[in-house]
Design goal:
Blueprint lengths: L1 H18 L4 H30 L2 E2 L9 E2 L3 H7 L2 H32 L6 H13 L2 H11 L7 H4 L9 E2 L4 E2 L2 E2 L3 H27 L3 H9 L4 H30 L2 H6 L11 H9 L6 H31 L1
Antiparallel strand pairs: 1-2, 3-4, 4-5
Length: 318
């Protein structure tokens, strides 16, 4: 009898323990749904709200409701000659920086592809620039470019301040040089992000089978033939991905340029992202027009991305 009583007393406890257990699906939902809700609140809602503001006349600091103006903001931006000038500056900045990053990054990947003494340390040192905050990099190079005490002029062999270039002021030997300040920003961007291209290219080089080079050596193929027929075609898809990422980032580049030049001197480094910030804040607070400009930039980035993805798919099929 006591054993039967004990058995009957333990059965309700087992049932209670089973009632508090969660299924695997419930645990998954418990982790996923809060994240999805956070993404919707922090990303999707501002995206659609800014799209609404793009068709309105609205200022974030004015105590007035948005006034619907249709496509007026888009029309004003596209008919503004200064805006086309900023887009052209952004295009030149993206073209120069991405091209140099591809050449230097791929060259560094070829350099560290083969193992040698100190190759691991050298690779780590090369990767350091991309690990630093862009604002810190901008301030660091701003001091480097100083014609009085900066190291840049000493490195290029122009230590005399009278004839040394003032990169950030766009002057060389006290004479204005258009585009010099933009090249100063391009140099910093190349220094910072060439290691990123090197990483992607290095992963592609490591994945090339050795038997391809062995077969080419048996056929007495030269180094240039192996490079153009084996190395470059195998790495080209990853290089195109690097071009895609870096082009998108170049069109969105803001913190690095603000840390170095702030868009100056004048508007020589006024890329479109800096001008967007200037319209949205910095005394203007033209929220509706800035939202319209942001969506124009988004459309351009999507178009460029689709072109790159199209060529990438063609490479994969070939």
């Amino acid at each position: 009898m006591p054993a039967e009583i004990a058995q009957t007393n333990t059965q309700p406890n087992k049932q209670k323990k089973k009632g508090f257990q969660l299924s695997d699906r419930a645990i998954i939902n418990l982790f996923i749904w809060p994240t999805l809700i956070l993404i919707i609140v922090m990303t999707i809602f501002p995206l659609f709200y800014s799209l609404f503001l793009a068709f309105t006349d609205y200022s974030a600091i004015a105590r007035q409701q948005p006034v619907w103006v249709g496509f007026k903001n888009f029309s004003d931006i596209l008919n503004d000659e200064n805006m086309w000038k900023y887009f052209a500056t952004t295009g030149r900045y993206a073209l120069f920086s991405v091209t140099l990053q591809m050449l230097i990054g791929f060259g560094l990947a070829l350099l560290v592809r083969d193992k040698f003494w100190g190759s691991g340390l050298l690779t780590t040192i090369i990767l350091i620039p991309m690990m630093i905050s862009p604002v810190v990099v901008g301030l660091f190079w701003k001091l480097m470019y100083n014609p009085q005490y900066g190291f840049f002029n000493y490195l290029v062999g122009l230590s005399n301040p009278a004839i040394a270039p003032d990169m950030l002021a766009g002057r060389f030997a006290n004479q204005p040089v258009p585009g010099l300040a933009l090249w100063a920003v391009v140099i910093v961007d190349v220094w910072m992000w060439s290691p990123f291209v090197m990483l992607l290219a290095l992963s592609g080089l490591k994945s090339i089978p050795d038997y391809l080079y062995e077969a080419a050596a048996i056929d007495r193929a030269g180094s240039w033939f192996q490079f153009w027929r084996i190395t470059l075609p195998q790495v080209a898809p990853l290089l195109l991905i690097a071009v895609l990422f870096r082009t998108i980032e170049a069109f969105k580049s803001f913190d690095l340029i603000m840390g170095i030049t702030g868009g100056g001197p004048g508007d020589q480094t006024e890329v479109i992202a800096v001008n967007l910030y200037r319209q949205a804040f910095l005394g203007q607070w033209r929220t509706g027009r800035a939202s319209a400009l942001a969506y124009i930039i988004l459309i351009i980035i999507i178009a460029i991305s689709n072109i790159y993805i199209k060529y990438l798919n063609q490479m994969k099929e070939e």
